[in-house]
């Protein structure tokens, strides 16, 4: 039921008004907290926090709280004199107008909902707060002089203290009060900034104040050790980021005036207040830089994990694609083998007839045999699992290789009016017959396809000192050889075959082929085997 009551907007509005009045009352509790010239004027920070955190018409709570002080009877609870109803009303307009403008500009200039732990947003916040505090102080004393509450001499004597007091409160309270209010008002379910680890931060601040204050009592020369109050917020920012810096700055700014009042601080109060202002700004900027760095590092780690997941997924996809291709190759091999068997059987049936073209039938048998060998090679490579492909080497006769190529491509060349010359040899190779046939078939097919009628294509074996060159020569003009479609996927296949065989690709004007490394000893002129290149 209490939760339901607090969720009502009128109840939340009253709570925000009470919060502002509590900050105003706290500023008047001790001499050190005198309104308008106090070490820190809490309503400045509370006003800015409510403007940044509250939704809709709830933002009017600071203005309504200011207007309540117009009543002399009500204001006596907080301050001896309100300076008159008109003056207090003008102060309400001035105060809420300045910090309301900061609340409007901050999210736009920082390009993020504040407080965001970035250096840019925090620096924007610090600059706007300093400017607003200066405007509030100058306009405030001017208003008091206009109302006759003080002279210009008195006004100029307190304007710096007023500005610093507003700046300290507006720097210290919003980083912890804005997230807390957003959660209480249901705008942000995340935990308030710096909500965890605050006892440790408080102990460190108390320890620094104890050392700084007591050192001055023991030895006046050590009075400057009050500057130890700068250390806890900066250390908290380095170790805990923006959240730790915010809570440490709050405790430091809260405890330092109390300690100065109770322990009879001997220095200038304005020096101590300026110290808190500079320390708060520095600690918040350091904490923002640390938080931004940690966030960037977390994003890098997340991106790396995402990249690793992507690589894993792509690897799995490639493995699936590889498995599918192997399955497809096996299926194609099996599907094509049966028609080839049928062709071979038909050829044998034709041979039994009385009349048939013996030359055509022989050529048909050779083509069928060649295609059968190619399919056997495909199925052989398809049997490899995930291990790298390895050539199936054996002793291959060059005459046999060229005969198979002639059987397949001679009819194609004759049909296109191209002369195919085969210059064979009785040489032997130790290589993979299927891969060599595939590579030479690619070059021979391109040469015949791009040659014009009347041209000649030659396939030959060239015995060289560093290996056996299997060459396809043509008389194609360079413009035709470079035409679209002249080379493509087949070139990549040949390059892969050369890599598997350890061969060297031969490419040049009018000549293509591959240079196979020496694999068998050669005969010297005296008839002995030359093993120098074995």
Description:
The protein is of the alpha+beta class and 534 residues long. 65% of the residues lie in helices and 8% in strands. It contains 17 helices and nine strands. The strands form three sheets. The chain has a five-stranded mixed sheet. Strands 1-3 form a two-stranded antiparallel ribbon. β6 and β7 form a beta hairpin. The protein is rod-shaped. The model is unreliable at 191-195, 483-489 and 523-534 (pLDDT under 50).
**Total count of helical runs of at least 4 residues:** 17
Please count the beta strands (DSSP E, at least 2 residues each): 9
Largest sheet: 5 strands, mixed
β-sheet strand percentage: 5-15%
Cα(first) to Cα(last) distance is: 96 Å
Mean pLDDT: 77
Q: Uncertain spans, ≥5 residues at pLDDT below 50?
A: 191-195, 483-489, 523-534
Radius of gyration: 46 Å
Strand order of the largest sheet: 2-4-5-7-6
Q: What order do the helices and strands follow?
A: HHHHHHHHHHHHHEHEEHEEHHEEEE
Question: Percent helix among the residues?
Answer: 55-70%
- Name the overall outline: rod-shaped
Structural class by SSE content: alpha+beta
